[in-house]
Amino acid sequence: MKTNLVRFAHDFARERLKTRNGFFAVDATAGNGHDTLFLAQLAGENGRVAAFDIQPDAIEATRERLKKNNALANVDLFLCGHEDMAKHLPENWRGNVSAVFFNLGYLPRSTRQIKTHAETTLPALNCAWNLLAPGGFISLAVYTRHEGGFDESARVSEWLEHLRSRAEIFSLGTHNPVEPWWAGIVKKA
Ligand SMILES: C[S@@+](CC[C@H](N)C(=O)[O-])C[C@H]1O[C@@H](n2cnc3c(N)ncnc32)[C@H](O)[C@@H]1O
Questions:
Q1: Which is the closest atom of ligand 1 to the Cα of 101?
Q2: Predicted structure pTM score
C-alpha cells in the first residue's frame, strides 16, 4: 500500500502539472527526499521547490539525493517544522504555489519517535492551503501505523471534510483511521 500511495501521488501530480513550466512547489515532509527530487525534476530549471523537515538527517539525505541527481540548484532546504513554512517563503509564493506534498508519519528506517502529529500537521495544512494558487493542489499521504497515527488520520480527515465546498477532492483508500490513505486536494478556481 505504501509504495502505491507514493506512485499514485506522483502520477496525479505529473498529470496535473504537465502543462505548467516553472512552477513553485513545497515538500512539507522531505524525509529521504524522494518527493523533493520528484518535484524538482518536474518543476524544471525555471521552477523552485522548498522542502521542510525537522530532522537534520532527513535534510542531509534529501540534499544528497538532489546532489546525486543534479537537482539541487532549484531547491531550498529548511530544517524546520512545516507549520512555519510561510515564514520562510518569499512573498510572491503566496497564492502562487502549484503543489504541496505531505507524506505523514515517520522517516523510514529511522526512529518512530520523531513523526508528524496533528497539532502541527493541521496548522501546516491550513498554511499550505493558503499558499496554493487556484488549481493548485495538496498531495496528502497519510500513514497511520505509528503512535498517534490514528488520531492524526482522523483529525486530518475531519479537516478535509470542512474543505469540501472549496476543493475538488480525489481519494485513494478509505480514510478510516487504521489504513493508510491518500488524497489529492485541488483548490477550486
Ligand atoms: C514519511 S516521512 C517523509 C518521506 C518523504 N516524503 C520521502 O520522500 O522520503 C515523514 C517526515 O516528516 C518529518 N516531520 C515530522 N514532523 C515534521 C514537521 N513538523 N515539519 C516537517 N517535517 C516533519 C519527519 O522527520 C519525517 O522525515
A1: 6
A2: 0.95
